[in-house]
Amino acid sequence: MKKEICLLVLAIALLALASCKSSLKSEESVSNINNALQDSVEVILEKHLVEYGAMDGVAIIMETESGKVRAMVGLEAKDDSAYVRADSLAASKHSSALMRTVSVLAALNTGKVKPDDMFDSGVGVFVYDNDTIYDHNWQKGGYGELTLWQALAYSSDIGILKAVDVRKMSFGQPLEVEGMKLDSCVQDSEMPWCYYAMGFQKITPLQMLAFYNAIANKDSIASPSSIVDIRGMLEGVVSKGLAKRAMSDKVKVAGMNGTIRNEDCTLTAEFCGYFPADKPKYTMLVSVHRKELPAAGGRMAGSIFKEIAEMMM
């Protein structure tokens, strides 16, 4: 299979990210908002942002089947103990470590890799061309051999990069998908393809939420078997991986955590997933923006996700 075909596979997976449906337009989103839910989400989000000393945060809830946004809250710090509404945060573009799931789904959809395939993350340091990639636990010696599902569950950028590298995917070319022309935001000459896999692709929280909602809704963004595989892997991220703080005794959760350092050296901790995992009713994204460490998507954003999910069920 030529790499152009691999790019087509990835672009199909990205379709839910790159093109928001009419239900995601701001004016329609507002009309679909559940005001009581909105208020409850704001209280929970603000409580945790105060606890974390965060600069700002976002929580967006989408009804899985319909794709309608039922709550969309953005809060930014006013002073040390108060936050003000800033719903524009939901529409602002930023880098997202949640892109790892996009990369893994694209790799699965080639048929060349499987969830149980092994990849060596070594000691957590990997030199790729002129770039050096570090896993988050490199100072502890790395993870060594990992299956692909473990690489996703433990947020091993090296494991995921090696899985994606099996297909030598390219990200810089425009192409047609179902009559739509999708263009890369950054040309290959400006950004090595590997950084897309790690999340250095600026998109909006709403676009990312739409992608995870497509997985929850079993939409045709990839082959049925690939969707089954990625859904199982997202359940494992919560039950066995770094997002255990999102796990609930009241409702089964599936999703992905991630933390990324921004260009200004601040950090964004995220969790996006859906519940109940077996028959999803809602898909939710939570994002917490901090000035400095500690910042952990599974612990911070995952805890907020869990509390909101339990409140709704």
User: Low-confidence parts lasting 5 or more residues at pLDDT below 50?
Assistant: 1-9, 11-27, 168-191
Q: Give the strand content.
A: 15-25%
Q: In order across it, which strands form the biggest sheet?
A: 3-2-1-12-11-10
Helix tally equals: 10
Summarize the helix and strand pattern as letters. HHHEEEHEEEEHHEEHHHEEEH
Share of helix among residues?
25-40%
What profile does the largest beta sheet have? 6 strands, antiparallel
Instruction: Count the beta strands.
Output: 12
Shape: globular
Radius of gyration computed on alpha carbons:
18 Å
Rounded mean pLDDT is 80
Q: Which structural category fits the helices and strands?
A: alpha+beta
What is the first-to-last residue Cα distance?
45 Å
Secondary-structure blueprint of this entry?
Layout (H helix, E strand, L loop, with lengths): L2 H16 L7 H7 L2 H18 L3 E8 L5 E9 L5 E3 L13 H11 L8 E3 L4 E4 L2 E4 L10 E3 H6 L3 H9 L9 E3 L2 E3 L11 H5 L6 H12 L7 H16 L14 E8 L5 E9 L6 E9 L6 H16 L1
Antiparallel strand pairs: 1-2, 1-12, 2-3, 4-7, 5-6, 8-9, 10-11, 11-12
Helix pairs in contact: 1-4, 1-8, 3-10, 4-6, 4-9
Write a structural description.
With 313 residues, the chain is α+β, with helices and mostly antiparallel strands. The chain is globular, with a radius of gyration of 18 Å. Mean pLDDT is 80; it is low at 1-9, 11-27 and 168-191. It contains ten helices and twelve strands. The chain has a six-stranded antiparallel sheet, with helices on both faces. Strands 4-7 form a two-stranded antiparallel sheet. β5 (125-128) and β6 (131-134) form a beta hairpin. 37% of the residues lie in helices and 21% in strands. α3 runs antiparallel to α10 (297-312).
